[in-house]
Amino acid sequence: ASKQQARYAVGRCLMLWSSNDVTQQGSRPKTKLYVELEGNLSMKEKVVVDKAISLYTESFGDPAHEPIILIMGAMSSAVWWPDEFCSQLAKMGRYVIRYDHRDTGKSTSYEPGQAPYSVEELADDVVRVIDGYGLEAAHLVGMSLGGFLSQLVALKYPKRVKSLTLIASERLADADPDMPAFDPAIIEYHQRAESLDWSDRDAVVSYQV
């Protein structure tokens, strides 16, 4: 989020106005922030709140257009979907929504260690975003873990999904015998995460860089 704010500060974007207490859900207000991007498209911030969970989201384009939710991979916030990419989709007549997973960006975070939620609950977060925007259904675009979550949502809530676009994602279906297997180095890398001390900042940086 700080990288994005820095880009705004050097003039790429012009903050138009911010409004607090626009709508209420539960006991916490949602904050809406409007920003003018290149091409006169607007980006709007919104916090979707459900009980003790807060999901930070950003939307691009006209809410009347077809909605697309961009779901990034593990340990990655919404800013990994570039502004330019989101703006281009909006220019093509799509209403684009990106959001921060729990423990990333501005969404709910927990103490380092064992996460108090499951992958299935992260999939439910997608539906929370859909509901938070008052949508019946949306097109889901998922990268890596985001693609896996998209498939879970489609299976559990088929009426809430208009289409799936999966990028570098694990599949839920049986493997195609004609497709090559994962490189062992990739498997070894992800296995390291199981024994990693997530409270050790240097160890986490070394793992991710």
From TrEMBL:
UniProt xrefs under Gene3D superfamilies: alpha/beta hydrolase
Single GO biological process annotation from the record: glycerolipid catabolic process
Domain AB hydrolase-1 as annotated: residue spans: 73-201
InterPro entries reported for this sequence: AB_hydrolase, AB_hydrolase_1, AB_hydrolase_fold
UniProt keyword annotations, A-Z: Plasmid, Transferase
Keyword Transferase attached: yes
Keyword Ubl conjugation: no
Molecular functions per Gene Ontology: transferase activity; triacylglycerol lipase activity
Protein name: Streptothricin acetyltransferase
Organism: Salmonella typhimurium
